[in-house]
Amino acid sequence: MRTIEEVWEAVSQIMKNDPDISGVAYDMWLGDITPVAIEGESFVVTIPTVFQRNVIEQQFAGKLTAAIEKAIGLPLALFIRAEDEEQQKAEEDKLDDSLRHDLSSYYKMINPFYTFKTFVVGPTNNFAYATAQSVADKPAGAYNPLFIWGGSGLGKTHLLHAICNEMHLKNRQCKILYATCETFTNEFLVALHGQTLPDFRQKYREVDILLIDDIQFLANKEQTQEEFFNTFEAVKNAGGQVVLTSDRRPNEIATLTDRLKSRFEAGMLADVQPPPIETRILIVQTKADQLHFHLDKNVCDYIARELKTNVRQIEGVINKLHGEYLLNGTIPTERTAEEAIANVRNDNQPVAVTVEKVITEVSRTMDVSVEDLRSKGGNANIKQARKVAAYIIREITKMKMEEIGNEFGGLDHSTISYAYKNVADKMKKDTSFKALVEDIMKNLKIGC
Description:
Blueprint: H1 4-17, H2 23-30, E1 34-39, E2 42-47, H3 50-59, H4 61-72, E3 77-82, H5 85-94, H6 97-109, H7 126-137, E4 146-150, H8 156-170, E5 176-180, H9 181-194, H10 197-205, E6 209-213, H11 222-237, E7 241-246, H12 258-265, E8 268-272, H13 277-290, H14 297-306, H15 311-328, H16 334-344, H17 351-366, H18 370-374, H19 380-397, H20 401-406, H21 413-429, H22 431-443
Parallel strand pairs: 2-3, 4-7, 4-8, 5-6, 6-7
Antiparallel strand pairs: 1-2
Helix pairs in contact: 1-4, 7-8, 9-10, 13-14, 13-15, 14-16, 15-16, 17-19, 19-21, 21-22
């Protein structure tokens, strides 16, 4: 009779030979499994963490059960024990209700698949990867704050989530707060108007690590910048870690206050740049492997050649191809990849979507409601914001003046032409106004 170890060796070989499970996926999720015993009608194994167990149960349980039956000749149920389960349960029992709620919210905000293991490292992101790992290993050490900057879709958010996941695994009682800058701003304004600032400040300042995504959205928000400065100082002075991301360096965020720029630049700046072709091919293969989805080498190469500057678009294309395969059995080809690429590229978005984005961003930045922007009248501030929106729409979409006028309550051609020229002339004379308009246009790149 074979030992439990011999049975598991056979199971492991079956899983390794499965064409739907890559070597990367096996090492990442199945390599740490240890066989324990056959108890009744169950095959019992252990895994180091509850997090790993959850992923295995979601992604691999069916294949593992089939492999066990094939190896042993009996249909047994798979039972997975997590080594840290007792510890986590004991820690949770010590937590008060508010912290339990915070942990629940944490799980909703953080993508469990955005880990350091699933981040594809190459020459254009290796420094950012290494500094993020260092922060996760030793928060509030040499890199505080850590400021990760680079274009949209290059992995900045992935690294933030990886830090959260790593720290959460190491210390469940660590108070981690991840938020987008937009969320921080919105919650601050709600607290300000609802007179609940003490609760807001307790949430954001009494943490061990604060991670804010897309900090460039603080630009031109004086009151919010003041609040964030005080939040930043409170976290750091209490011995906490701050990690920020942006689409540009601090000194390139024109309407950011000097004292915030100096605080950000006093830490570690780490950039992520578009990956070279070799890294892009590896990204395509890794993303497909995570879905247990086979892509022909020619298709992988084609996607990597076509999508040069945005990893998020690569992920979107693979998800599209995978969805088509699951729904219709469509085998990915270069032709289907071409169609998927056309669907995810923002330059193929309808003009109406782009116009809406511009109006929303101008509304957010210049403190004017969308309704006021789209109307004809208003005070000087509203009129100025409307001119800026019309100028940016014209610059981005090349729409006709009459069509742009229709977006603003039916303004005529001459009014929009005047607005465009007025903004262009003012940008030449007023450097701060020019910086404001350019900031809005840069922020519109987010998600592109």
